[in-house]
Amino acid sequence: MRARMGILLLPALLAGLAACGSEAPQQGARQQEVPANVQVKIVQSELGPILADQTGRTLYAFTKDENKPAECDADCIAVWPALTSQSKADVADGADGELVSQEDESSQVVYGKWPVYYYVGDQVAGDVNGQGVDEEWFAIAADGKLVKKS
User: Fold this and answer.
1) Which terminus in the chain has less CB density within 10 A, N or C?
2) Sequence-separated (6 or more) residues with CB below 8 Å from residue 102
């Protein structure tokens, strides 16, 4: 009798174990890694001198963020990823170290009064495809002001 019960329970047990092992990973559970360190610098562009990261990628500001924590929600961040760092951003090539800080909770780099972002539509260093988008996104000048020309 015990042998028959074991034989009957074995397939159910194996099916249960197989179901546990084949669970698909949850989408969105993976968070973007925060780099240990980033650099902000000033580069020459078709807009004039603007803020960029260490690879020359243009950095932007969102007009709704002026002098306050970032307003960019999850849908926004998908298009405008924040520049983040585990430590204070390094400053080079004309950027003003006095204007660099970070939002503590998110590690997002702030330049002057602007939390800074990338634009996913910029493919290579020097692209400024995010300039003026929705009349709310602008490159940042060395003095921390928004570059409003196109």
Assistant:
1) N
2) 85, 88, 89, 108, 109, 110
Contact 44/144 with Cβ under 8 angstroms?
no
What whole-number distance in Å separates Cα of residue 93 and Cα of residue 38? 14
**Contact assessment for residue 133 and residue 119, using Cβ atoms and an 8 Å cutoff:** yes
Helix/strand/coil (H, E, C) string of 82-105? ECECCCCCEEECCCCHHHEEECCC
CA 44 to CA 18: how far, in whole Å?
58
Give per-residue pLDDT as tens, 69-94. Answer: 888 999 999 999 999 998 889 999 89
What is the reported pTM? 0.75
